[in-house]
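User: Hello, can you help with two protein structures?

Assistant: Certainly.
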Amino acid sequence: RYVLRDSRRPRLTHQPHSSRRGRSPAPPRSMLRLAARARLPQPGGSGRQCLEQPRRRLTQASRPTRAGAPPKGDGISFDVEYSGLWGQIVTFPRRRPFATNIIVATVKTSLADLAVQTAEGKEKIDWKRNGVFTAFGFAYLGVAQWFIYVSLFTRLCPNAIRFSNLSWAEKLKDRAGQIDLLKQTALDNFIHYTFVYYPVFYTFKELIQADGGVDPSVVAGNALAKYGKNCVQDNLYMWSLWVPGDLLVYACPIWMRLPLNHAISLAWTMILSNLRGGEK
């Protein structure tokens, strides 16, 4: 169809049929050729990759996000947020487990012996006897047992910390952690208590209750002789309480291990004080 623009100078222009219906004009053939070439498979690549290539070019890559920060703490102590004095007190065991262990061990052992002496009907507290348990609680139960339970046992049982910090549902599925749980219980009861704990306890007892000027070698010899006499009975008492107790202690979170140990140990110290505290 043609339109006469000037009667004097007839100039003919072509108008596509689609323009009268409001449609956009067809794209030039050069653009169609470029689009067709972009869709053709390139040597060494699949057709699917080539078809997706224009879409990739048009996609604006977002800036990669940073990886989340690792949890604060070493698996034993934790950086816990708190506010106020009460929050500081409540979170102290998790933030300062070593200091918590020393405080609890010392106070617990002393109070346990005082409770037993009171129950025995003594008119006067034997402070030398109480000094044995207080010193033993601070030096051995507070300091030395931290090294044994947290440092040494976690090296001998490499899955110990990881297993202890799992949820109870995850613990039931972790076979390696369960093996380390049994290993720690056996090491504690049949190695640590039998060959380390009792000899140290009898040595503390003999050293504090002995008169001044006693040769240390004599003190150690007397302590081991007394332990040898009571060895079987002492260990049977120990195992009856601590085999099931250790299964619970080593399964709880690592920061709670020694506080829970001391809670059970409170009952054990009363038994030990009643059993051996009054012996000379």
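That covers the first. Now for the second protein you mentioned:
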Amino acid sequence: LLLSVFYSLNSPGLTDEFEDHLDAWMDCIHKLVTLPNPAVAAPQQDEDEEAPVDACKAMACECLSLFMERNEEEFAKFLETFVESVWKQLVEVGQGVGQDRLAMAAIAFLTTVAKSVHYTLFQGEEILKQVCQGVIIPNIRLREGDIELFEMNWVEYVRRDAEGSDSETRRRAASELVKALVDKFPGETTQLFSGYVGSLLTEAGGDPAGKWQAKDAAVYLVTALAAKTKTSSAGATTTNELVNLAEFYTNHVAPELESATASSEDRAVI
């Protein structure tokens, strides 16, 4: 509640009162971001319910994104510390629905940083590898809830995905981070992430019936890499020329659509 009030008070802009005591406020928010999470050692019984500590951390991340967007100059000296802390929290987040808000808020903060003049914090092959392995891949994979949503109303599932109205999902948040990195490091990001696409396709190829989710993740990652700008009505309006979409479609998408198993219940999502 206090963080929500803090967010609301600073939404119009940084007041003199907050600016004069910014160090103290940032120290407090950093302590909240790095609060020990009991769920790491002892997972909750109900993974669909948001724990109070996760709600607190998520709101703290939202406050950090606000400062990056509205008060970047004043926030700059704290940035590296918070990026490291938020990253550490993010890689510990589980796949339960109860941690969705925390995952999305943390990814959104990293995306805001990647889009800013401080994007060099993500520069380097090793850092990009960690981002892909620790953030992108885990959050673009389908979960049981995603499959259930598709089974209940596949038309709505496809519509939300095509129009981008699924903005409040981990997959969409991870996709936006990929796009931000492609914009700043087009060659390095495309080449490195394409390697992970190949790994996912290899995983799926080894057991097509049991590992089809890996292929779905590969297709989603290619989409994120390829679409630089898009609109809800026209789809992708600018594409990443470093991604060979025609080849990927011919080799991996068309065979799936033409396959006799394409309409089977367990592969319908692809």
